[in-house]
Design a protein that fits this description.
Pfam families: Aldo_ket_red (PF00248). Residues 15-344 form the NADP-dependent oxidoreductase domain. Keywords: Oxidoreductase. The structure is a single chain. The protein has 353 residues and is an alpha/beta fold. The chain has one domain (4-243, 302-333): TIM Barrel. Helices cover 38% and strands 14% of the residues. The protein has twelve helices and ten strands. The strands form two sheets. An eight-stranded parallel β-barrel has the order 3-4-5-6-7-8-9-10, surrounded by six helices. Strands 1-2 form a two-stranded antiparallel ribbon. Helix 9 runs antiparallel to helix 12.
């Protein structure tokens, strides 16, 4: 795989990134280390995590994923310098008081969170430090509409950038990014950075998959024109686009019990648990079978080949899943198949937005 540049930074990474939010919940530490070893052996040099992981978020597993990664780096001296490491500072509390005191995300919170991540990761520097979700009120994680009456901002974007600039100046962070952002947010972060000579965001990490393509409704133009790269997460729609729930549904007696969406009520209450999301996934999954490929291969190839995507974040619980995801690289989708995908989207839109 040819490495790609992230935004205007000098970070060059593989177009597939290993996401790690299952480590510490579904995946124990020895298994996580085996998966990491295998990913590196297969050529992956880009890892993504977050301070709030593992997922689903619980007080008992807060910081567990970063800790597991830190232990792995300690076991493999010299490897850290060969990899691009991304992590995230949690936005304002979403029912997670164990992340920090208070409901906001102050400049001091950003600094303290970074220090905590550095300790857990056992590293001196974070290559890409991302804001996990906006500090201001935005429609995210399945919320459909912006509601100005729910504005809660306490720390301006300018203040957030100044805090991040301090971390960059101190050598603790190389570049910054955003996650779960909107076109307005990306524009403001870039505008203020350029106006005040502050760090410019290199990336936005947003959901992008066959059943959730809202990014193509304007955010893709924003990112293209501003030279900000997309890190696409949930390319398999939280497992819906693997086909494993096609026959059983996500809550039936025969539903697979190992997936996050089946195991955790908090996940089912978000966008992935909507009946419309499963109905759309079934259509895409059958389309894949009609074209002699697995549903996962179609879903991954869609992300791997879209011009909007710089690097696709894959999350796995086994080495076999990792191999399946990596082996999908290089799959091409014919113009006729892409047209069929768009016909389904025209009919069913984006039910997991």
């Amino acid at each position: 795989m040819q490495r790609i540049q992230l935004g205007r930074s000098d970070l060059r990474v593989t177009p597939i990134c290993l996401g790690t939010m299952t480590f510490g919940e579904q995946v124990d530490e020895p298994t996580a280390h085996d998966i990491l070893d295998h990913a590196v052996a297969r050529g992956i040099d880009f890892l993504d995590t977050a301070e709030m992981y593992a997922v689903p978020a619980r007080k008992e597993t807060f910081g567990a994923t970063e800790t597991i990664l830190g232990h792995w780096f300690a076991k493999n001296p010299g490897l850290r310098q060969k990899l691009t490491l991304a992590t995230k500072v949690a936005g304002p509390s979403r029912g997670m008081p164990w992340v920090r005191e208070g409901a906001g995300m102050t400049a001091a919170d950003i600094v303290a969170s970074c220090e905590g991540s550095l300790r857990r990761l056992q590293t001196d520097v974070i290559d890409l430090y991302q804001i996990h979700w906006p500090e201001r009120n935005v429609p995210a994680f399945g919320t459909m509409y912006y509601d100005p009456t729910k504005e809660r901002t306490q720390t301006s974007i300018h203040e957030q950038l100044e805090a991040l600039a301090g971390l960059v100046k101190a050598g603790k962070v190389r570049y910054i990014g955003l996650s779960n952002e909107t076109p307005y947010g990306v524009h403001e972060f870039v505008r203020l950075a350029e106006q005040h000579d502050l760090p410019r965001v290199a990336t936005v990490q947003n959901v992008y998959c066959l059943i959730s393509r809202a990014l193509e409704n304007g955010l893709d133009e924003t990112m293209h024109r501003l030279d900000v790269s997309l890190l696409a997460y949930s390319p398999l729609g939280f497992g819906l686009l693997t086909g494993k729930y096609d026959a059983s549904g996500i809550e039936g007696p025969d539903a697979p019990k190992d997936g996050r969406i089946a195991r955790y009520e908090s996940v089912r209450k978000q966008r992935w648990g909507r009946p419309e999301a499963l109905a759309a996934a079934r259509r895409y999954n059958q389309l894949a079978r009609d074209h002699d490929m697995t549903p996962a291969r179609l879903a991954l190839a869609f992300c791997y080949t879209k011009w909007q995507v710089a690097s696709t974040i894959i999350g796995v619980t086994t080495k076999a899943q990792l191999d399946e995801d990596l082996d999908a690289w290089g799959t091409t989708l014919s113009p006729e198949l892409l047209a069929e995908i768009d016909r389904i989207r025209w009919e069913l839109r984006d039910p997991a937005n």
